[in-house]
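Collaboration report, partner site 2.

Our partner group contributed sequences for two proteins of shared interest, and the home lab folded both. The records are reproduced in the order in which they were received, starting with the first partner submission.
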Amino acid sequence: MLSMLLMATVLVSAPMDFEDHFTGQTLRFDYFHSGVAAEEHISLDAFRIEGEWPGSRTQLIDPTGLGKYQVEMRDLQSQAVLYSRGFASIYGEWETTGEARRGIWRTFHESQRMPEPARPVQVILRKREHAGGFVEIFSCTVDPGSRFVQRMPVRKQGELWAFQEKGDPSVKVDLLIIGDGYAADEMDKYRADVARHAEALFAAEPFKSRRDDFNVWAIDLPSQESGITRPRADAWVRTPLGLSFNAFDSERYVLTYENRELREIAAQAPYDAIMFMGNTRKYGGGGIFNLWATTSSDTSVSEYVFVHEFGHSFGGLADEYYTSQIAYEDFNPAGTEPWEPNVTALLDPENIKWAEFVDDDTPLPTPWKQDAYDETSYDYQKKRNEARARHAPDEEVEQLFAELKEITTPMLQGEEYFGKVGAFEGAGYEAKGLYRPEPDCIMFTRNPENFCRVCSAALERMINLYSE
């Protein structure tokens, strides 16, 4: 049932005694998300029981308000909200591309996971309007006792193992790392790559201080061939996860559209977040809030990309850079406040979303030498584009990254308000009209080793949502 009714401003909430409302298993809702920029549709695929619910059994309602979409479960009789989470999606990004705006239809398979209810419930999907509220775009009733709920056992694929196990999944953040494009004789390399990238994550704050709140799982999943697909190089590889460069025709953007297959693979593990690691030397990655993230394994900055993309997928953080090429058009419409916690349109400077971190003597907007930074950044962007156009070795492109870092690190650290939280213009793919909290951050450049204070606070909030 499709509807465009506004979401109620006050949600009815039930007493959150987990055993009163849920069976302890995981219910997966699979659906198809189709449309163009001006029109979208949701159609049911299946409901599927995966195994024991790995998420929190006490923090079932999402208080963050993050995400382009929301999934919600309501008790049929009382209409009490039993479970909710905000999320973003591949479709939500794709609808801002030129292809969608030209009226070319696409369909993406998506999933939402929630604790299995003990009784029939209503499952609702809502989408954020530009004004900030949510509208209902899909609703259906599911009876967990129905013969239409799939209950076949999860099939073993690969070998599940723990990189670190700190406690019961229900009171920890469970991160699952799965490699793609690792041949059978590269499993030792894969395990070493898991360790290297996980350690990079826990070397960065706030994850360093919160390491004991994480379990990290991995699945050895051999591919028939080594490497992942690179369409612009005419290199096509069949892998278990289907990772590929050139998502949305953006050369460095790594995604997969094989959602049902990867969900079946991931269902072998308890997980709250997933990182896919492509076995490749080429620079690339991606991250979508409450979906998953991707990274290349072997570039000189792969550890940085791992941490940066996890910031997207786990914390709902926006990209703060704006000088790199992207596939989106009008990703953040003018005059609207982005939902991401680390970017603002500064529509109300007196009530900026990160006001608690701003000193009284810091002006809003906050001045910085943007012209000098832009001149350098755009110059190196041009050099990288030229190098890629002539299919230069990856090492040459990485050298340009290193040179840019060497120049811009002291440049940004020399800013008058470096180390201060303010509103620095240039963020969210826009040079003008959007603002970031600090001159530099892991979400802005490859220079710093830690997230800024606003991003750190947002990540801590998500850690708290999954741990106790």
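Second partner submission, folded after the first:
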Amino acid sequence: MSRIHKRSSEDAFWVHCVLILACFFVCFPLVFACVKATQTMAVVISPSLVPGTQLWTNIKAVWNDYHLGMYMRNSFFITFWVTGGKIILSLLAANALVFYDFKGKKLVFGFIIVTLMLPTEILILGLFEVVSNKPAPTVAKLLVWMFNPKEFFLAPTKYGFGLGNSRLSVILPFLASATGVFLFRQHFLTIPRSLADSARIDGVNSMQFLIHILTPLSLNTIGALTVIQFVYVWDQYIWPRVVIRQNAHQVIQVGLSGITSAGDSILWNQVMTGAILAMIPPLLVFIVLYKAFMNGYALSTNK
């Protein structure tokens, strides 16, 4: 018995050694960036990992000289509306897919899941034309184009929304979320159908059932989707870089790239400072919604 206990203790020791080593490799880049953000340019290019005293100076430099505050406000505005829109539309879609009976329901859900396999990079050219092209001058011309199969399918981007170079051009194309629909659908499937039937008998309509019954039961899933989509939208780079041309509307990730392209030499202490500042909002969201994220991502119900 003592031999078995000794062997289990040795196994636990090596497991902890491996976990500590893994944590070190995962956390080292963050620690490295935090230390370099406090150093001067003369020290930052050296292998020194001794914290410096220039953190506040570096923060003021990236905040004022590179307008990092403006980029972060733009990103927060875009992320807030995109995340909120994704949650609302996903709730509505999942509610229809679970609690409504209509022909082709499984086919519709299949098409939604297929969109998960299409990254933005593949759709970026067509999406740019749809967002940037001018809208139809009259409703009549729009209807003629829509109900002409040849023109509609051969020139699907003839008319657009005329939203190029604006924050709306980043918000509108990403309001729908296949991930959100999937998460809410899987969660709603765990809710007894008899609950919906009882609500109908009591005179509760569909929207009241969604708002007053399904939504409180889905707080964990909402928290999980909020974290996932907040981080996803906050980290967007390619699409804002393509569709937005004015710095006044640009997002934080594109703004960070401006620090590395300014001047002949790269001020790595300021680059690290900007990266640390840009990481704070999604980190705070994750900390606040950590419990809901862990429960909701596992598709569990509220406890």
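Feedback sent to the partner group on the second submission included the following. The chain is about 70% helix and 0% strand. The mean pLDDT is 85.
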